[in-house]
């Protein structure tokens, strides 16, 4: 801005000098007559132009002095604002480019390059991400089941159909202690088949429709204790089991039995404390297993830790203690006092008080730059009654097993993945039938570009009892074979797994 004023003043002074130079020959020619009178004759037009330039020059100098005085009285500019001023000067004063609309947004006469409001908006957007994911698939079940249903699947539930598994929008503003902000928040909105899997069971949720599209919604605060105690309040995705919700970050397209069986989400308070770079401790107090609203007064808990001995190995251990038996049952009416829909209950007496125990552990090992190995082990036991009364059964149901994964990077954009899994379901906690389930899955993945991925998969499930659907009513098979093509699009500024 000041450089422009300087050039303007120099230009006016140069013009005046040229005019004075042109006047000298005229003076020499008029010496004979003009000297006799003691004056020099100059045309009225020339004098008028000279006075106009002089007036403009005085105005420019006065304005420049005022701006210099204001600059001296203002606080010293920071390096960042100085750099912004230089950038704004280049945008405004480049003769080849001319003034642009951006220059008017960045600069103003005698003021800062960016207003405080503009800078606060930019700082807010810098720490906030909006991310979108679209997950769709076509799957074919070689059993040709009635109703085109893939049994015991979490997400790829439909056969011989073009299906929308999940459409998600994620708003994330994590804490930034370095910037002086110890709080943040996250909201995941979800639509599609996966929403029914995650939150479609009225046995777990008294009012599932209210929360169905809200997969995660929690606030975060980092308590200034030691290295920082991270506390979340709200609803979040469960970290039990190695697999997660967003397909683009999973080795396989279909989810494992254990992802389908272990909790999907929780509502409550959780805390994590990093003892050092190699050990983190976790503790939760929550309403229950897949419960935004509780079905009883017992508060479930989780105790866990994560060990990272080096950058290539991570080991997670979790112990979950819960009580998922409801102490009341919904009824259509509950007396003359009006209440919200779905809030009429009738007490169950006596209410089952048996506990749920989940022992969950998994590890990841990046053996080489191309080969990733993962292993998961789980043991789940649940009783209906803690102390059985006469005539009440307290025999526990328990489910155990695990899964092994391998991922080999063929090229920077392609990999092959495999999963082998075993689940012993004694008491029918998972499938409703006492059985031994097994499955193997092979996946070929192509990342077409950053934000566009395709997964081609073949999977075989089998059991020691016939449970899988076929094309004939009430005729079941011991195995189920499926082929699936999944397509995932996503975009957003969030780095790492969502």
What spatial form do the alpha-carbon principal axes imply?
Answer: elongated
Q: Gap between N and C termini, in Å? A: 46 Å
Mean pLDDT: 84
CATH class categorisation of the largest domain? Mainly Beta
Order of helices and strands: HHHHHHEEEHHEEHEEEEEEEEEEEEEEE
| Total of domains | 2
User: Main sheet?
Assistant: 16 strands, antiparallel, barrel
Oligomer: single chain
Overall SS class: alpha+beta
Q: Which percent bin holds the helix content?
A: 10-25%
Query: What would you give as the CATH superfamily of the largest domain?
Result: Porin
How much of the residues is beta strand, in percent?
35-45%
CATH architecture tag of the largest domain? Beta Barrel
Explain the overall architecture.
With 498 residues, the protein is of the alpha+beta class. Helices cover 23% and strands 39% of the residues. The protein folds into 2 domains: 2-119, no CATH class; 132-491, Porin. The chain has helices at residues 2-29, 31-37, 44-73, 79-93, 101-106, 116-126, 193-199, 208-211, 257-261, and strands spanning 129-141, 161-173, 183-191, 214-223, 229-237, 265-276, 279-286, 300-310, 313-322, 328-330, 345-347, 356-366, 371-382, 397-411, 414-426, 435-449, 452-463, 468-469, 476-477, 479-491.
Quick tags:
20 strands, 16-stranded antiparallel β-barrel, elongated, 2 domains, alpha+beta, 498 residues, 39% strand, two-stranded antiparallel sheet, Porin
In a nutshell, what does this entry contain?
This protein has 498 residues and is of the alpha+beta class.
């Amino acid at each position: 801005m000041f450089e422009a004023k300087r050039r303007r003043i120099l230009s006016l002074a140069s013009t005046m000098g040229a005019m004075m130079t042109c006047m000298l020959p005229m003076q020499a020619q008029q010496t004979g007559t003009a000297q006799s009178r003691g004056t020099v004759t100059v045309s009225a037009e020339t004098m008028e132009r000279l006075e106009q330039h002089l007036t403009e020059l005085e105005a420019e100098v006065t304005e420049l002095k005022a701006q210099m005085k204001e600059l001296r009285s203002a606080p010293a500019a920071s390096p960042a604002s100085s750099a912004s001023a230089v950038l704004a000067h280049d945008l405004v004063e480049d003769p080849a480019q001319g003034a642009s609309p951006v220059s008017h947004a960045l600069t103003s006469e005698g003021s800062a390059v960016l207003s405080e409001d503009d800078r606060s908006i930019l700082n807010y957007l810098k720490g906030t991400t909006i991310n979108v994911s679209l997950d769709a698939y076509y799957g074919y079940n070689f059993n040709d089941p009635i109703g085109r249903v893939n049994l015991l699947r979490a997400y790829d539930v439909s056969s011989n159909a073009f299906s929308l598994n999940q459409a998600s929008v994620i708003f994330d503003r994590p804490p930034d202690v370095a910037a002086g902000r110890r709080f943040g928040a996250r909201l995941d909105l979800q639509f599609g088949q996966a929403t029914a899997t995650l939150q479609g069971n009225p046995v777990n949720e008294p009012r599932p429709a209210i929360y169905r599209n809200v997969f995660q919604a929690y606030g975060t605060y980092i308590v200034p204790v030691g290295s920082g105690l991270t506390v979340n309040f709200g609803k979040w995705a469960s970290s039990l089991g190695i697999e997660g919700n967003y397909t683009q970050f999973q080795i396989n397209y279909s989810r494992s039995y254990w992802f389908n069986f272990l909790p999907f989400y929780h509502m409550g308070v959780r805390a994590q404390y990093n003892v050092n770079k190699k050990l983190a401790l976790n503790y939760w107090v929550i309403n229950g297993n897949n419960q935004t609203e509780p079905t009883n007064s017992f508060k479930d808990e989780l105790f866990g830790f994560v060990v990272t001995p080096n950058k290539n190995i991570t080991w997670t251990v979790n112990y979950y203690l819960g009580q998922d038996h409801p102490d009341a049952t919904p009824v259509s009416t509950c007396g003359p006092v009006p209440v919200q829909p779905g809030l009429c209950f009738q007490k169950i007496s006596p209410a089952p008080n048996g506990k749920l125990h989940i022992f969950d552990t998994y590890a990841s090992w990046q053996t080489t730059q191309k080969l990733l190995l993962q292993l998961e082990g789980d043991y789940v036991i649940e009783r209906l009654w803690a102390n059985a009364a006469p005539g009440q059964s307290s025999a526990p149901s328990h489910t155990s097993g695990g899964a092994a994964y391998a991922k080999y990077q063929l090229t920077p954009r392609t990999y092959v993945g495999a999963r082998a899994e075993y689940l012993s379901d004694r008491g029918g906690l998972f499938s409703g039938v006492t059985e031994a389930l097994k499955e193997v899955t092979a996946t070929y993945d192509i990342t077409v570009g950053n934000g566009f991925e395709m997964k081609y998969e073949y999977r075989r499930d089998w059991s020691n009892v016939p449970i899988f659907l076929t094309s004939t009513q009430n005729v079941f098979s011991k195995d189920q074979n499926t082929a699936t093509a999944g397509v995932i699009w996503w975009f957003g500024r969030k780095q790492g797994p969502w």
